Amino acid sequence: MTSEVNSAQAEWWNAAGRGWAQAQDIVDLVLKPFQDLLVEAARQRPRERVLDVGCGTGGVTRAIADALDGTRCVGLDISESMLAAAREHGQAEFLLADAQVHVFEERFDLIVSRFGVMFFDDPAAAFRNLLHASAPDGELCFITWRTPEENPFMTAASRAAASLLPDAPAPDPDGPGPFSLADAAKTRKILEEAGWSGIGISAVDRICTMPESLLVPYLSNLGPISRALKEADESVRPQLMAQVRSAFDEFVHGDEVRVPGACWQVTASAPL
Ligand SMILES: C[S@@+](CC[C@H](N)C(=O)[O-])C[C@H]1O[C@@H](n2cnc3c(N)ncnc32)[C@H](O)[C@@H]1O
Prior knowledge:
Bound molecules: S-adenosylmethionine
Strand content: 15-25%
Number of strands: 8
CATH architecture of the domain at 7-148 and 172-207 and 261-269: 3-Layer(aba) Sandwich
Order of helices and strands: HHHEHEHEEHEHHEHHHEE
CATH topology of the domain at 7-148 and 172-207 and 261-269: Rossmann fold
Number of helices: 11
């Protein structure tokens, strides 16, 4: 897909899609506590149409479609490769589009996202565009990461990736990225500027778990380590992975990995 905005993100998420497709069952397992929050929010009122923004491989879209029988659930994502994996499971409709600029032809009474709204070039423009996708009195509910300091598993992954690629430029802390909505006051301002009202921002902390046997597949397919490994010859990737694996020992408890996830649950309403 080509887009005048968010092109770097589109390129990255298209490249990342293959790893996410390979690891989608692990993603759905690890991030299930945050999926459950969105399913719970979706169940609070009868819904005709639900939009899942930055739906990735579609776990949340499908979970809401399953929970709300008869509700139309649409997953939207900028990455063709993510959506190809999402579509393999059927059960919901998936739309290839950039949430920041897509011209929505229908209106949704609930717009959700799990970690899919932090990657916009222009967040206020994107949330304004999502307001256009909302029915009058429709709701927005998304989950986003709090600070890197509060999410030590993610910082361990970034440090490990940096050790594999010491010359790579550090990511811009103010640009699009997983922590771009970590500052609650800034997020509130963006949503107000975009025209949303009744904004609520609550801290949600969950322990995400996976069997220890899935830790290496998780790290090698997702996030900054997978990105760093892609730069290396395929034959040396297992060796490089083994080199950084010990940085995650503190999260391993017997045969289980426990990842503390410190997030915001952000809610807002569209004007009537
Ligand atoms: C961290 S992943 C989350 C995927 C999914 N929501 C989940 O929880 O498994 C972020 C997703 O946002 C998508 N994304 C990034 N920028 C986007 C944009 N401008 N419009 C639509 N989707 C976007 C990416 O392609 C990616 O699938």
